[in-house]
C-alpha cells in the first residue's frame, strides 16, 4: 500500500508546559505577577493588546525547540484572549514589542546573553531586565531599545525624590524603583499601576477612609444627607454608622 505525503507527515507537538513546576523565588514570582496583572489592567480597554507572562512563545513553525518564555510580555495588534501558548505564525507574525525578564541567580546568564540575542532577532522593540534582590544585575533595572537590529541602553533618570526611572516608549509608561521595588507609572499623571491585590487593598482603604471621615463631618454640623453626598456614600450607610 502506498501512503500519501500527508499520511507520512508526523504531527509537530508544541508543548504548553515543560512538565516541571515553575520554581521561582518569592521576589521573582511576586514581580512576575505584578508585571502581568498591572499591565493587563492598564490595557484592559484595548481588545488589540495581549499581555502575558511565563508562557511558551514559539517563533518558528515546525520547530518546537524554537521557543522562549518571557517573564512578562506585551503584544500589540493581536486579539486579547486566553492562550495555552503563543505561536507567532498563528498571530500574523506579531511578536512582543515589550519584554521584561525578572533576573535571578539561575536565569542571570540566560537573561544577559541568550535571550537578548533571540529577542533582537525576533524584533522585540524593548527588552527590560530587573533584579529584585539587587545581587545579579548592576544597575538593578536595565532597559534596552532595538536600534538597527541591536539593543541600545535606554538612559535612566534620577527623579528629584531620588527614584530611578526608565521610560518605555512602547508602553508609554515609566518603570521606577522605590527602595529597589519595581513599579509601573503613568508619566503624565504620576499614577502608579496596581496589581489586582493592590487594587482591592486600595479600594478597601478608600472605603475605610470615607467611613472614618463621617464623625468629623457630623461634628462640623453637616447633615446626614450632606455627609453622604460629600463622601459619595449611601445615606443609609451614614445613618447606620450613627446608630452603631
Automatic annotation (TrEMBL):
Gene3D superfamilies: tt1808, chain A. It comes from Komarekiella delphini-convector SJRDD-AB1. Keywords: Endonuclease, Hydrolase, Nuclease. This is Uma2 family endonuclease. GO terms for molecular function: endonuclease activity. Residues 42-174 form the Putative restriction endonuclease domain. InterPro entries: Nuclease_put_TT1808, Restrct_endonuc-II-like, Uma2. Pfam families: Uma2. It comes from the Bacteria.
